[in-house]
What does this fold into?
Amino acid sequence: MKLLGRLFFGFLVAYIGLNVYALSNFDMQTAYVKKYGNEAVENADQTFFKSLYDYYLDENLVEVSDTYQETVLNDENESEVVTYSYNLYMFYGIAGGRNFIRVQMDDLGGYDYSKGIEVTFYVEGGNAFTLSLYDISDSFMFGAVDLKKLYSPDGETEFYYNILDVKVYALGVDDNGLNTKVKLYDFDGDVFLDKADMQLAEALTTPLDPNAADKVYPTPESLGLTKGVAHNYFNEFQWTLWKNMAMYVVIIAFLTYLLFFRKKKSYGTTKGSPVRFKENLNSKVIEEKDEDLPQQK
It folds into this structure.
């Protein structure tokens, strides 16, 4: 049983350790994207976000900026001018041999989006896929959807389907505690993205002439793709990994000592027997009673 327990403990240590490493790696990437993403938003340049992908299309699928002002009455019943604004970008990218649409928003002001930003893709066949944007920075929000999972969010389809429409909503709560849903964007057209234009990742690995002896594959440039950049987030944010792993090692070392190396305190033994017993109040009372008894001759 002891051996089995130690094997189980070792497996648990390795499993949790891998998860600590994975979460630390995610934290490093998030910190990197947050730092340089903020700079990109400040410079109104989407190149950084696109370069995170293996390949991407330079031309955005959507690029919308909207700003307007409205006079409203505040809580003190005084007129107040509120500025509503946002920048919305959608672009096509390839990562790990998969095709994605990335949605990016910044300069979002005036709107109540306390419950998030919701992006809904309407696919042929009557299906709809909803994407919630991540808020990792005060400057921007983003999300990405795998194009093969649009039709079946819980799984993966064999084929691609036309995206007919896209709508973007800001979700919030009004003064009465009721949920609000304000439309920020609605595609105006028949087909937002044709299924024929969703397969660039497959096109990169498909020979121009499948029957040729020497296979020749299309170049990214011939497909209109730009190669991404290998971002080295580890060099700048590696302290996150070392800090988390060091804390984990200390905790595991302490638990290992408590479970396997700490010696139990011995309080005494019975006569002629190695069995240990712990002194308690009852034994003290018995000893005191024994001292009161007359000595037998």
In short: The chain has a mean pLDDT of 85. The two ends are 52 Å apart (CA to CA).
